[in-house]
Amino acid sequence: MPITILTCGRAECGKTFCEELSTLGTSGHCADAYNQPVFAMDGEKSGIKTAPSLRRIVLRSLLTGVGLLTVTYGGDYGVFRYRLATGRQPFGSVIVEHYDSVAHKDGRAELIFDPPVQETCVHSLFPHAGDPPCWFLSRNAEQKTDM
């Protein structure tokens, strides 16, 4: 009875694959002792630790990002509430210019300017109490509406 030598390795998705390397003829009495079936098993079930998959890395990164964002927002809200309770000017104001852009059929646009308005904002990273942050409002002092 011939002896089949198999080589085993890792394929995609953590699966084990085996392929026939060569077939040797038997030289005698112990051939059946080495001729055993080889079953491909999943890497997790076979007890072999594999490197973290891309899916696990992306999931951990996403959860870490959401956690950091939650902690940052909570801290920012705490500072806002502290400023509000102690009267340390949590609110500010920025002058905003608003205009409407009306597109015509010939491709030109008509601009209709409104008078500048002073808008209330919050001295924080995120919007609180229904007001935008001052850093955002000062960068977007010109607001355009397409009609």
Describe the structure in your own words.
By secondary structure, the protein is an alpha+beta fold. The protein folds into two domains: 1-51, no CATH class; 54-146, no CATH class. It has three helices and six strands. It has helices spanning 31-34, 54-86, 134-139; strands spanning 3-10, 16-24, 91-103, 109-113, 117-122, 142-146. Strands 3, 4, 5 and 6 form a four-stranded mixed sheet that branches. Strands 1-2 form a two-stranded antiparallel ribbon. The N and C termini lie far apart (85 Å).
Question: Keywords, please?
Answer:
alpha+beta; 31% strand; four-stranded mixed sheet; two-stranded antiparallel ribbon; 147 residues; 29% helix; flat
Our count of domains comes out at: 2
Strand tally: 6
Sheet-strand content, in percent, reads 25-35%
- Overall, the morphology is flat
**Computed structural class:** alpha+beta
Distance between the termini: 85 Å
Helix percent reads 25-40%
Rg, nearest Å? 34 Å
The helix-strand sequence is: EEHHEEEHE
**Average pLDDT for all residues:** 77
Give a quick account of the main beta sheet: strands, pairing sense, barrel closure: 4 strands, mixed
Unreliable runs: 28-36, 40-44
Count every helix, treating DSSP H or I runs of 4 or more residues as helices. 3
